[in-house]
Description:
The protein has 5 domains: 2-196, Rossmann fold, CATH 3.40.50.300; 204-398, P-loop containing nucleotide triphosphate hydrolases (Rossmann fold, 3-Layer(aba) Sandwich), CATH 3.40.50.300; 403-506, Winged helix-like DNA-binding domain superfamily/Winged helix DNA-binding domain (Arc Repressor Mutant, subunit A); 525-611, DNA polymerase, domain 1; 617-722, ATP-dependent DNA helicase RecQ (Arc Repressor Mutant, subunit A). The strands form 4 sheets. It has a 7-stranded parallel beta sheet, with helices on both faces. A 6-stranded parallel beta sheet has the order 8-13-12-9-11-10, sandwiched between helices. A two-stranded antiparallel sheet has the order 14-17. The relative contact order is 0.06. Helix 5 links the parallel strand 3 and strand 4 (109-112). Mean pLDDT is 87; it is low at 516-526. It contains 35 helices and 17 strands. By secondary structure, it is of the alpha/beta class. Magnesium ion binds at residues 44-45, 137. Residues 14, 16-18, 21, 38, 40-46, 173, 292 line the site of adenosine-5'-diphosphate (ADP).
Amino acid sequence: MDKLREKLKEVFGFTQFRGNQGPVIKNILARKNTFVIMPTGAGKSLCYQLPALMQEGTAIVISPLIALMKNQVDQLNAFGINAKFLNSTLTKGEMTKVKKETLSGELKLLYVAPESLTKEENIKFLKQAKISFAAVDEAHCISEWGHDFRPEYRKIKGILEEIGDLPLIALTATATPKVQLDIKKNLGMDEADIFLSSFNRGNLYYEVRPKVHVKKQLIKFIKDNKGKSGIIYCLSRKKVEEIAGLLQVNDIKAAPYHAGLEPSIRAKNQDDFLNEEIDVIVATIAFGMGIDKPDVRFVIHYDTPKSLEGYYQETGRSGRDGLEGNCILFYRYKDILKLEKFQKDKTVTERENAKLLLDEMSMYSESSVCRRKQLLHYFGEKYDESSCGKTMWCDICKYPPEKFEGKEYVSLVLETAEKTEERFGLKHLVDVIRGVENQYVKSYKHNELPVFGQGKEDKEEFWNSVVRQTLLHHYLEKDLDIIGVLKLTDLGREFLVNPQPITLVKDKDFESLIEQEDDEQPFMSKSYDEVLFELLKKLRKDVARRKNLPPYVVFQDPSLEEMATVYPTSEEEMAKITGVGKGKIIKFGKPFIEFIQEYVEENDIITASDVVIKSAVNKSKTKIFIIQQIDRKIDLQEIADAKGLSYPELIDEIENICYSGTKLNLDYYIENMLDPDRQDEVFDYFMTAPSDKITDALDELGEEDYDEEDIRLLRIKFLSDHAN
Length: 724
Ligand code: ADP
Ligand code: MG
Ligand code: ZN
């Protein structure tokens, strides 16, 4: 051991082994098959790097990503270690060099992509070389039950056998019991020594938030954590671009990262993040594997991830230095449904796998059980009740949920599992308990069981949660061979004979927390300051009276509501309110800004200005086109045709343009549309009308005499003349 530590210090400059590193290395040096399960950032690489240096010959390291390989090889070379990689990016000359140094034994570590390993010529030369051992990094890629399945990983075992009788090291950070079993089976390492580290990351705070007002929450969070490094994960490239743009216009140093970016830009953004030129990287899951930035302070999942494994790996990238890491997940069930839809072209098995992973994800998010407890249970670890809150809490333990006595409920779940012969999954058990008489239930005659329908008083979500908690308490367990099936444990059998009081927690009703999908218009909810709103309405009336205009011409209600939400106290802030353009600020802005300033001071309101979201300039191409065409006095029908819009749709667009504050001169068109007398009639109407509703106008002016579209256009002209 002393010799090992000496070498550790000499080559890597570290004084201590971390966790299981020492025992793992000894095991490898004893030429035994070794299975290493350690969380992300724990230091798996060293487990094979150090023994490679201490033996004759070359160690083969199989690793799934070319970028990862390069990164590791660079780091090793920097330590003065001879390591190289073998993959499709090498030139002929480089290839020859790799082969030569492997055959001569100079090379200590050879990183190989699984694709390259399958090539006949590579197998041939590796057979001739002296190979010390083979390490399979990110070994979970072998399992389709994980989140990262690579079919080529399945061939590894056969090829390694061809190369020689080598000790095997498998390493992974994601091992649910099912994935563990898969790795062992596929690599033929049943007798391997397993080194399992605890997955608990005591320095990470876990929180799940309902996905509402998410942009506002995001910006507020980042501004509250100014200058700290963070990663935001989104599911699509498009979302990555959008959110990176949003952060940038809000003066946050952010950059996007996804597979669709030019490689040079991608590399630059990654480097900028590592070098702290930027604080926040907005990325798809393409970002992060093998990234070793120790001081990432937050990882935010803007979209719900596809699996708990992926989620755990990604959150694991925060707080690697052992200090604070905040992990926030924005969740809504709709995201889960969306992800399920993405699977529709896959095979049945793939779809079913994906669905089970997604179910785990949604149950985790909706559950009111300690996050840490759930995560550790998922990774097959026995949970110690005091694990949460030693350093950091999770949201559940910090704000404890309602609890209830669950003895009767758990008994019913266990009885149902037993009576259905422990051959079914959660959904079926819940169906039987709730008395759902579907085909499936009937085909097994489970509707004739005494337990059938005994829990029909309670909702499906409730029972899902009870079954989940029965699992978490180890009364039920997942069958490792047949995925989805739940079986009784010995504890569970005991409970059936002798039921005990058991405290369960009540889940929050997530969907009622998300009443409204308001991503795009975060300020349109009813959460405005009603007092200020009423006062602003009064002010609007005064201003309108003085200017001799109807109130809605000054500002419309949604604009006032928004003002009563974000309290704009300067012209710039006012300009960000929907429906307020430059023209309106000049004409009407001043009294409103002054009024809000006073109100804010009097009431000691901390203005939301630092939380206000500026949206990126959102004049879509179509809008710009329409504005240009109207400037050129092009016939409206022609504009509509050119953009493939119907006439009413075009008018919708024009209204939007006008309501967001851009002045449009439609005189050229209106002159040809209606004679001046009738125009005046409509204008007079709008001048005195209590509202600008089109239906009211049609009632008043007569539907026979005017088309809806005509009136809408005239209203636009009226508003343009007076309001913008
Ligand atoms: P993993 O592959 O498990 O996610 P890595 O092998 O990339 O983790 O290691 C994570 C970080 O921990 C690296 O920066 C590495 O240099 C560092 N590290 C590994 N072992 C030690 C040690 N014994 N002492 C200090 N730092 C270590
Ligand atoms: Mg690693
Ligand atoms: Zn907790």
